[in-house]
Amino acid sequence: MLQVKYLNASLKKDYAKSSNMTAIYNAKLFIDDAIIEDKVLLFDKKIVDILDDLILSDTDEIELIDAKGAYVSAGFIDIHVHGSGGADVMDATPQALETISKILLQTGTTSFLATTMTMSTEAIDNALQNIQDYAENVSGAKIVGIHLEGPFINASKHGAQDKHYVQEANFTLIEKYMSEVKMITIAPEVSGAEDFIKQMRKAYPHVVLSIGHSDASYEESQESFSWGISHATHLFNAMSPFHHRAPGVVGAVFDNAEVSCDIIADLVHTHPSILELVHKTKKDKLLLITDAMRAGCMKCGEYDLGGQRVTVNEGKAMLDDGTLAGSVLQLNEALQNMIKHTSMSKVEAINAVTKIPAEKLGLKKGSLKKGYDADIVIFDEKFKILSSIVNGDIKYRTL
Q: Would the pTM of this model clear 0.90, i.e. be above it?
C-alpha cells in the first residue's frame, strides 16, 4: 500500500486524528453540481476534504485508489425497492435484508428504503418488525428506513398490489415502527386518508407522504398537497391518467412546483418521451427509483411479488394477467436510460439518485461534501459500477 504524509500541510493536525484514511485521485468528481477533475477526495467514515494535491511520504499511511479517469459521485439512494438477488423485504427474514443489501452494491446503490407491499396485516407487521430488528446489521448498502407502499391505497389502482388486502389508513399498523418509517405511499381520496395525512404531518413531519396507487382527480390531488402530501410515487403508473380535460394526479404534480416525484426509467413503465417531459417539468424535483422486486439482478424466469406469480422476460416483470409487477431495473441502468433518451445532463441525472433523495429524506448523504457520510460510488462512462463504498469501507470493487 502506498503511503501519504499530508494532502495539504495546513490540515496535518486534523488528519493525524484518523488512522483509516482513504484518498481517491485521478477521478472526475461530482461536486457542487459540476464535474471536477484534478482533485483528491479524502475520507474515512465521513468526507474529510477535497484537495488539490497529493504528497507521498513514508509516514501516515493512507490507502490510495486510482480511479483511472472514472467518475466518482456520492453513493446512489433508492427510495423505492422491494427486493433483488432473489430476496424480498416481505420475506421478513434477516437473510433477505442482507441479500438485498449486498446485491444492490453492484448497481451503485449504497442506501435504500426497504419497501413493503399490500399484504395481510400480519405479513406487513412481520416485515416491519424484521426491518426494525435487523436493518442495522446488514453488511452492504445501508437501510435508511422503511417505505410503506400500501396498504393505504385505492383498490381501483392497486397495480401489482393485492387489492384484497387494501385497508383504510390508520396508525395501529405502524405506530411501533415510526422511528423507521420514512415514507408512506397513500391514496388521499379514500376514506380516512385526510385525517391520517393531517395527523402524520403534525406528529411526524419527517415522514414523506406520497400520493400513489390513487384515482384522485386533479382537484383532489391539489387539496391533498395542502394536507401534507409532498411527493408522488412512480409518476404515471397506478394513478389517474393525464388527460387534457381531466389532468388527474399527474397534472396536479406538474402544476405544483414544491411537490417532488419519482419515476421508473426502465423504458417499460414509461416511454422515453414521458421521461423527457417529466425531466423538463419537474427538474430538481425528480428522483429516479427502481421499484425492483426479487428478480432484480437475476435471470429471467418465474418469481413472486406479494404472494402473486411474476414472470420476468426481456426486462419486463408481469403478473399472469399482464399487469406490470414492479421492475428488474437497476439504478445505474436508470441513469444510462435518462442520459440516452432525454436531455438530462450527467450532473442532473446523478443528482436525481444522490442529492435530491438525500435532501428529501433529510439525510447527510448524497453529496461529496466535508462532514457528509462517505458513501461513494465509482463508475465508467456507461455507468458500469467499478466500486461502491459505504461509510468509508469498500464494499464492492472491480477496479
A: yes
